[in-house]
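Support reply, case 0932

Customer input (verbatim):
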Amino acid sequence: MLVIVPETMSASLEPLEHSSLHPRLASREVPRLLRSDLISTPTSHKRTANIPRSTSLHLNTRHAARITTTTASPSSFPTLAATTPSTRTRHRLYMLHKSALAGKPPSELTVAVAGATGYIGKAVVRECIRRGYKTKAYVREESVGRAKTLDYLKGAEVIGGSLDDTSEVQAKLFGGSEPVDVVISCIASRSGAPADAWKVDHAANVHLLDAALGAKEPSKHFIMLSAYCVKTPRLVFQHAKLKFENYLRGKGEEITSTIIRPTAFFKSVSGQLEIVQKGYPYVMFGDGEICSCNPISEADLAEYIVKSIDDATMHHQVLDVGGPDEGLTPKRQAEILFEVVGKEPSFIKVPIGLFDAIIGTIDFFAKFLDGAKDAAELARIGKYYAVEDMLTTKPSEKYGKITLREHFARIAKEGNEYDPYTTMFSSAKQKTEA
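Our regenerated output:
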């Protein structure tokens, strides 16, 4: 039997600790379609709910929710004459169901991590192993030999392959004797250039998800590492990520999912360490107060990502997350960095309008040169991060204990991880990991 909750009903919901909601549910409200084992309704070919006005309805199950109606009357309840998808869509119905992973110990679950050698991916692999999950690290075919020597992948099964074809992914990652219960996608385009963005942020994720669903024993949960900035999409890579998010959420009847949107990584705001240590000024745009962010450490983010495997309240959710700091402007980040390295603060202030001049010039040449289109997009990416806040303010959207100051103190001693896209005026360290 079904209970159809009308649009006129106001409801309050106590958290469902081990339930997950349909992906179209924007917040943790009560789902509009409740399971028949929780509530029974009078027998009717139209299945019209018969709940009187101003009635408190309690779902006294192991993990219960309470709905308090205040304005509904029996006559205001909609009817459901058929159970076709179009009818369910019109009535905005949502399913309440138990997580397929609930109660299973990590040792009984297999987790596959795509992008396992990336900045966040390797931290996720470490966290999966630490928690006792059977872990598969999916890496590029040409990287398998090196990957097997890396400390952070020890304990994981390293598998090489591409994400260019669903059948290849299915054969290599999902074709083993044991099913893959959970897939974690930490893949991301390196540059954000249009072709790379659509190939990696969208198409590769589609191949990964389709392979997981098409396996002999389909995966039960898919976790996507997305980005906070897709909330206000103006760049190609943001649209590519957002399109896959929607594709994933559209598979809600086949697989549970969690989409995690971190504000910024520590590495993204650490690129000027070396030049500051050498006594050079810190480069910032405008007065350094245009925007602010609360970046999150790779260890804290990995913990949050892996936590979502067995925390069913995180299933079928799109979750923004940042670190424990309050909003830090670029100027404040620089001041902390100068304090940590023991240097007197000095700045070079670049007018934000310079981006507009650069973008306009490159866009002009892009009419004649295809290569200039990528350069124009990279300039737009630079401006975006120079003016947009990457900041969570709700307590529920902050996670972890590692502050940016603590991170700066560590890399000032140990050195910064080199990244050609975030590390300014320095070169790769000649150091091998073993």
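We compared this against your earlier run and they match. Two observations from our side: Residues 1-97, 430-434 have pLDDT under 50 and may be disordered. The CA atoms of residues 22 and 276 lie 48 Å apart. Please reopen the case if you see a mismatch on your end.
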